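Notebook p. 47: complex prediction with guanosine-5'-triphosphate.
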Amino acid sequence: MIKQAKFVTSVADAGKLPDFGAPEIAIAGRSNVGKSSFINMLTGQGKLARTSSEPGRTRLINFFEINKGEYYFADLPGYGFAKVSRAEKDKWGALIENYLSKSENLINVFVLVDLRHEPTDDDKLLLNYLYAYSIPFTIIATKADKLSRLQQGKCRQIVANALGVGTSDVIVTSSEKGMGKQEVFERIDRLLETASKL
Ligand SMILES: Nc1nc2c(ncn2[C@@H]2O[C@H](COP(=O)(O)OP(=O)(O)OP(=O)(O)O)[C@@H](O)[C@H]2O)c(=O)[nH]1
Ligand SMILES: [Mg+2]
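Predicted complex, structure tokens below:
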């Protein structure tokens, strides 16, 4: 459960990462996949993380404090957006990579993928990176409301196969409908419990 949430700070430079001394969960995924909407759904604050119909809007890492510092969300810039320059892509890529490799408090990366589409090469690149650095992750499929119940099941399997995880490892969500919230909170509780024992 999230009782309190607030925006804390934005970071454009991985050399200036904040250290809150509390567990951090990063929200990663392609541009427009629904990262900011997902944070808004979980916190119950529709306008906490800025969302946009224009892809590629979140260009910074935005940090959100949850439950008065119990843990933090790091909303990462979306990757794989075609309409930005090579230089800008490299800059975002470096920011994300630096964050993932340097963050002291990162306990898990929520990798968001659109349930309707096969994961892209960029998604697989991110997962390979997480495997290589032994960073634990959770696969979250978004925008389930755009599919029928039957299609949701089929697509869940396609996503899981493409990413080399079990079907039950893919949490199906819809920020529009508040779907999957319970499962996500259970996951977060387990992650925090594990982190507290380290
Ligand atoms: N139908 C539906 N639309 C969604 C859902 N989640 C997000 N959207 C829409 O998808 C678009 C992008 O959502 P954002 O939350 O801004 O996506 P983002 O991943 O934060 O995007 P960047 O910050 O640009 O990387 C917006 O128009 C949202 O309203 C969902 O669960 N269902
Ligand atoms: Mg965003």
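Notes: The chain has a mean pLDDT of 91. Residues 35-36, 57-58 surround magnesium ion (ligand 2) (CB under 6 Å).
Next step: compare against the earlier run before touching the bench.
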